[in-house]
Design brief:
Blueprint: H1 5-30, H2 34-60, H3 76-79, H4 83-95, H5 103-117
Helix pairs in contact: 1-2, 2-5
Length: 121
């Protein structure tokens, strides 16, 4: 596979997509509630990410070779670019709850949001 890195990356991507697809099938077959379904999908995405990291570590030797690097503290002025995003999320957090919401649903929803937005950073 070293001669064909494109094929290798496509195969890894397809392998990582198996977990979310299986989680969707599990949710449909078992007819899980919304909260349980989100929990199963969150677990599937975490497992898929870990499998991808393990494969990258074994294939390339170091995660730095695939673009992963240690987090270094930055000065405060660089974080000001995220202030509009934080304000929009705060408005959603403060105004977006209904009476039926509970803390478990809120925590699971926020973990899904963080998990989906992780690649953007």
């Amino acid at each position: 596979m070293k001669k064909h890195p494109l094929v290798f990356s496509i195969l890894i991507t397809m392998l990582m997509l198996v977990f979310p697809v299986v989680s969707g099938a599990i949710i449909s077959v078992l007819q899980l509630s919304t909260l349980q379904g989100r929990l199963v999908q969150t677990a599937a995405f975490v497992i898929a990410g870990l499998v991808g990291l393990i494969i990258a570590k074994r294939a390339f030797g170091a995660l730095g070779d695939v673009g992963m690097r240690r987090v270094r503290p930055l000065d405060g002025s660089r974080y000001l670019w995220f202030l509009p995003i934080v304000l929009v999320e705060a408005c959603t957090l403060l105004l977006g709850f209904s009476k039926e919401s509970d803390i478990a649903a809120w925590g699971l929803r926020k973990s899904c949001i963080l998990e989906e937005s992780f690649p953007e950073f």
